[in-house]
Amino acid sequence: MKTEVVKIREDDVQTPEGRRLLERAGEVIKAGGLVAFPTETVYGLGGNAFDPAASARIYAAKGRPSDNPLIVHIADLDDLTGVASEVPDEAYALAERFWPGPLTIIMKKKPELPAETTGGLDTVAVRFPSHRTAQGLIKAGGGFIAAPSANLSGRPSPTAAEHCVEDLDGRVDMIIDGGRVGIGVESSIIDISGGTPDLLRPGYVTASMLARVLGKKVEKCFGVEKADDRPRAPGMKYRHYAPRGEMVMVRGDSADVIGYINAEASGASGKGIRTAVIASGKTAGFYTCADRVYAAGDSPEEIAGNLFGILRQLDADSMERIFTEAFDGGGELSEAVMNRLIKACGNNIVEV
Ligand code: TXA
Ligand code: MG
User: Fold this and answer.
1) CA neighbours within 13 Å on the CB side: how many for 290?
2) Ligand 2 centre from 148 Cα, in Å?
3) CA-CA distances (angstroms) from residue 227 to 69, 200, 215, 231, 338?
């Protein structure tokens, strides 16, 4: 299959050319095809949520297990009742505060929504993105777009169109290039289908922001699960984000971390192993023993924006031994960053 790449920036959405291209992309969706598109979090791989064959194509293109449900994207609050059978007041309260934006809400699903889209579950995850290109595509495509992140299964989510091309060229009909995304980690996922609000995936919208709107505690149901736990979001059980090289997180006082990593890196490098460090902007200059240092930035926002691109670059640079600092202690967005980073390390953490 030939993959067409079209450029539509957010500012182009209202221009005649932007509208024409979005209409074309919408036709691809309506005909059962697949379009990768930018959102404010990461790029998504979209298909018509009501077309079981389109959902099957999404799983095939990503190499994703089909028990891992897709998020349904809408661009109009009224469409919520098109996919959810029960919309609790809490959903409207959350929507009013956080939509359009980087929050996904899980509710009971409508029977009309194909089981292929929700991985056989009786719930549906719904998101109303704020990115105007995404909204334009959803409207042009019929209002309901099922979309996981637009990466091959197991790889980091794409934060730029080039990442989508890298993973999906020849596997999807179209890729919309909207430039680099704003946030860089996937949406927060809250499950309100079971009575108590549970945060299944941390993101830009944090547990305390959600608790403030709901007026009750939001349980954090993510992190390192016990072996016998079944993760609540099926996608969280799969190996994810990990670069091909062996990656370890080093945690402790900054001077100890720098000392430890430099000693280890110099040993590995001396044996001809390609060695990398992921560091903050402030500390990057201290890693003199690694072959390459990747500066992730200093604020949690900057680090979130750079993280997935760096994880991809490590593979592009064929890095074999990777050390990363722990980017914790920067508030709740750091929790979202650490959640992804710990998965990327396969839970391989050294305390110094
Ligand atoms: O920011 C985002 O959410 C991006 C953009 C494209 O919107 N999408 C995204 O989708 O990250 P995906 O498929 O990569 O991650 C969705 C996660 C998976 O872990 C999946 O298992 C979980 O949400 N999920 C989806 N529907 C669910 C449901 N009904 N119950 C529990 N977990 C669900
Ligand atoms: Mg994903």
Assistant:
1) 25
2) 6
3) 22, 17, 32, 10, 20
Q: Per-residue pLDDT tens for 116-145?
A: 999 999 999 999 999 999 999 999 999 999
For tokens 């944090």, the residue is 206
The pTM of the full predicted model, rounded to 2 decimals, is 0.96
d(CA 249, CA 66): 31
| Strand bridging mode 198-201 / 219-220 | parallel
Distance CA 128, CA 139 (A): 11
Structure tokens at 177: 């290039």
Burial pattern 190-224, b for ≥16 Cβ within 10 A else e, equals bbbbeeebbbbbbbbbbbebbeebbeeebbebbee
DSSP 122-151: SEEEEE----HHHHHHHHHTTS-EEE-BSS
Going from the C-alpha of 39 to that of each of 10, 130, 131, the distances in angstroms are 10, 7, 5
CB-based contact 185:156 (threshold 8 Å): no
Average pLDDT, the chain: 95
Q: For each of the domains in the chain, give its residue range(s) and CATH number, in order of start.
A: 4-220 (3.90.870.10), 246-351 (3.40.50.11030)
In this structure, the residues whose C-beta lies within 6 A of any atom of ligand 1 are 39, 41-42, 44, 68-71, 104, 106, 118, 121, 123-125, 127, 147-149, 186-187, 189, 200, 232-236
